[in-house]
Amino acid sequence: MKKFLLLVVVLFAGTSLFAQDVQFGAKGGLNFANWIGDDADGTDMRTDIHLGVFARFAINENIAFQPEMVYSRQGMKVDMGSDVKFKSNYLNIPLLMRAKMADKFHAIFGPQVGIHLNSEADDGDVSVDADNMKGLDLALALGLEYDIADNVAIGLRYNWGLSKVVDVDEAKVQNSVFQLGVSVAF
Q1: What domain count does the chain have?
Q2: What percent of the chain has pLDDT over 90?
Q3: Each residue of 92-116: pLDDT tens digit?
Q4: 9, 33, 100, 144: which one has the fewest Cβ atoms less than 10 Å from its Cβ?
């Protein structure tokens, strides 16, 4: 994992040396998270937050490369006699392209690597074994952003999990996260 984080830092630093127009910023908002897949029946969406930083490297006036580092609280709810909220915390690293579609509208898309930080359940009767969670979560991020001011945008994004998040042979579940957020570029 240290090698992967070093690669991301080198990517940020190396790309900034060659980019003519670079912006840095912060972002945050709400997550609407759930699990999807063959074994995700009975799970419900849970709401939490995401917070992060980004860099935006202009390739031309319509396209930019936008890597991010985002702390994301994900998981799901399940009814086990009472509502149990399963919380998983990730450090997500999306490597996005941001393409201008129309005046003030941008499409964003690209791969995302999520590093599992920890998991917990908020019901005392349910125990969560962090060893059963996979360390990496691969996803595809797709979304739209709208510039409400020169350096402020609102966005809606869907992170579609491509890899299993539970490290149990028979469990086939992936993360599914809608994000509604605000970003500010400096």
Answers
A1: 1
A2: 67
A3: 999 999 999 999 999 999 999 999 9
A4: 9
